[in-house]
């Protein structure tokens, strides 16, 4: 693959595993505004946020409107809370990612880019565009973190169904996540706050878990 890395350091320092793969890599400063004509020559753009997540965010936002090339942001674990849907990234990599993981994510990204964009998820006034990482509620944009977006995307994609906290943890955070199910409760509470008067779209079923756009039932906990 032809890769462009926006970075202010040697890519081998920010993503060592990439140095062991046979991809062709060019680098440019994070501050460089990449025109579409230049970006179109690459299969993916890597944005290095290992030194400064704020500058990486600025670089991602400058790419979001004009550049269609898939973007991959590289962030240390401590900076993951800063990542939101507005960054417009297609993939995330940790600096510690192994060559095998990097290769897999790049190949999946390449396959996704060559296929038609996924249809928007629409349910109960919520519209989620996965290709642009945007979510709207009755036309109003929702300012969501990455995990809030993923959680809402999953729930809205399965309206009427109820999922246990363990199922949501596995589907949204992944089977390799070692945190407890309380993180699901925390993210649901934050999502409800951002849904405002429509917080009841996410219902709590006592002794089971959470559901989206369910008809109110006796076993639903009060909102």
How would you describe this protein?
This protein has 223 residues and is α/β, with parallel strands linked by helices. It is built from seven helices and twelve strands. It has helices at residues 11-14, 36-39, 53-64, 99-114, 146-156, 165-173, 182-195, and strands spanning 2-6, 24-28, 44-48, 71-74, 91-93, 121-123, 126-129, 134-137, 140-141, 162-164, 202-205, 209-212. The strands form three sheets. A five-stranded parallel β-sheet has the order 2-1-3-4-5. A four-stranded antiparallel β-sheet has the order 6-7-8-9, covered by helices on one side. Helix 1 (11-14) links the parallel strand 1 (2-6) and strand 2. The longest helix is centred in the middle third of the chain and has 16 residues, at 99-114. The model is unreliable at 216-223 (pLDDT under 50). Residues 118-214 form the OmpR/PhoB-type domain. Residues 118-214 bind DNA. Keywords: DNA-binding. This is Winged-helix domain-containing protein.
Question: What labels would you give this structure?
Answer:
223 residues; alpha/beta; five-stranded parallel beta sheet; four-stranded antiparallel beta sheet; 7 helices; disordered C terminus
């Amino acid at each position: 693959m032809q890769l462009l890395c926006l970075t202010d350091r040697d890519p081998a320092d920010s993503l060592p595993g990439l140095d062991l793969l046979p991809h062709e890599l060019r680098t440019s400063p994070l501050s460089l505004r990449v025109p579409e004509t230049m970006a179109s020559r690459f299969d993916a753009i890597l944005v290095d946020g290992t030194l400064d997540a704020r500058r990486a965010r600025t670089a991602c936002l400058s790419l979001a409107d004009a550049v269609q090339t898939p973007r991959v942001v590289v962030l240390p674990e401590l900076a993951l809370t800063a990542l939101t849907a507005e960054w417009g990234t297609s993939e995330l990599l940790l600096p510690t990612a192994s060559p095998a993981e990097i290769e897999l994510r790049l190949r999946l990204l390449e396959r996704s880019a060559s296929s038609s964009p996924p249809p928007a998820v629409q349910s109960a006034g919520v519209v989620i565009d996965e290709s642009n990482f945007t979510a709207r509620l009755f036309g109003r944009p929702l300012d969501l973190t990455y995990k809030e977006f993923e959680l809402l995307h999953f729930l809205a994609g399965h309206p009427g169904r109820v999922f246990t906290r363990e199922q949501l943890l596995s589907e949204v955070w992944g089977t390799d996540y070692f945190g407890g199910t309380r993180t699901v409760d925390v993210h649901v509470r934050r999502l409800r706050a951002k849904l405002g008067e429509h917080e009841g779209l996410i219902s709590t079923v006592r002794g089971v878990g959470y559901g989206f756009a369910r008809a109110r039932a006796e076993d639903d906990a009060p909102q």
